[in-house]
Design goal:
The structure is a homodimer. The first copy, chain A, contains seven helices and two strands; from the N terminus they run αααααββαα. By secondary structure, chain A is mostly helical. At the A-B interface, helix 1, helix 2, helix 3, helix 4 and helix 6 of A face helix 1, helix 2, helix 3, helix 4 and helix 6 of B. The structure holds a DNA duplex.
Chain lengths: 174, 174
Amino acid sequence: MSGIGRSRGQYRQLWAVNMSNEIETMEQASRRGIDMGGLPSFVGYTLRRAQLVIFDDFIRTLDEVGLKPASFSVLIILGSNPGLNQSEVSAALGIQRTNFVALVDSLEQRGLAERRPSESDRRSHALHLTPAGRKLLARAMTLQQEHEARFTDRLGPGGREQLLTLLEKLLPTE
Amino acid sequence: MSGIGRSRGQYRQLWAVNMSNEIETMEQASRRGIDMGGLPSFVGYTLRRAQLVIFDDFIRTLDEVGLKPASFSVLIILGSNPGLNQSEVSAALGIQRTNFVALVDSLEQRGLAERRPSESDRRSHALHLTPAGRKLLARAMTLQQEHEARFTDRLGPGGREQLLTLLEKLLPTE
DNA sequence: TATAATTGTTATATTGAATCATTAAACATT
DNA sequence: AATGTTTAATGATTCAATATAACAATTATA
């Protein structure tokens, strides 16, 4: 589903960080005698690199079901919270409601979700998964778990939990 | 230097992940009774959120010296490896040569770096920092360390090293 | 009731990043 | 020396994610 084309390597760069195939890896750079300066010791830099690696795999993984991280996350929210309106879902996910419109359009056109008229507020739409949406979500969750396992393996026993704990400390406590 | 404008929140979203001010935080979402599904337990999701938080702070931090992550990293490489050509620097950082051109243009126009004719290969330019570039880099490094400290504090003793170790396990061993 | 705020929407701008083509120099092979 | 191939730098263009502004309909509030 959904051609690879641009989706490959889409999230690859940002902090001028390499990480794949044709692009030289940092290790290769050092081996060629390039001094990376303090870069690899910056938490932000390494965090970014790791995130790109994971997303690269994740995006390829989701490609089978024609989803991207954003649309996948929407399905997840709708699956657990049927009936929310667009503002609620987009706010929970940090998507601006203005950009959320096209996202829902797409899900609706694919028959994965639907906008139902809200009973309490004629301005808003109650969002629901369709049966097809629920089915696709289930498949996507399986793929996600396989993806997750690939990286969990690398972290060793307890590594995943340790990592999550540390990462959460970086998040705003609010 | 360099107006805030767009630079604020530029790296904020992607995986449809909120994290700041006006945008509802995940915690707020849960409090409103929204079930985030498995999302917070996905390493990729939490990694992405943490990365956005750090970058948000990092970008604001660098704003004082008019740098962005990419240009900052270029200065670092040039500082430690004077004389490299554009292909070498861009490859080490994972920036495509083609997009690297404008980056160097900008640094050159700001008088921070310069292209010198390579002595061995008339096709390529030897990149060097100017004295102004070295000075700005020094200041930027100080800012980076302050930024780093803000997050290191949150991680507790040994947390930073632990986190770096775990993250490196996620990177391609090549 | 008058005013303000909210919901969904369209249109538009910005930016990071990828793609394609071109030029000139360097290199390799006959 | 002539040829073809690779490499360095560049420009032009495209694409996708995200941000901003404005608007109509509706609801909430002073």
